């Protein structure tokens, strides 16, 4: 409230901040970072720092994702629609089935997927969605 940002603006900011984790992991593929002691998750210390960084974002990320989602749900329909949210927020599992595959390639996938989530989020008109949800609830 102090910064006068909407829930959506905070969520977009958190998503972009979270995208820095896989972006940092991707640095290991660039020639400049190959000979450096850090950059691209080469040490356990880097992993711990990124884990703390991501962990500090994750709770806020989930809270704001639910807050934005809640603004778009018709009154009285919360149980029905939050069930959908509960399913979809746990589908982001990535597995590599090849034994000799470099797990680092997953960072490119994760980075792309996180950034791809920003584009639809930017076009969501939350105030209009709230009005539409209220109109839907009034019809029932």
Automatic annotation (TrEMBL):
This is 6436_t:CDS:1. It comes from Acaulospora colombiana. The lineage of its organism: Eukaryota, Fungi, Fungi incertae sedis, Mucoromycota, Glomeromycotina.
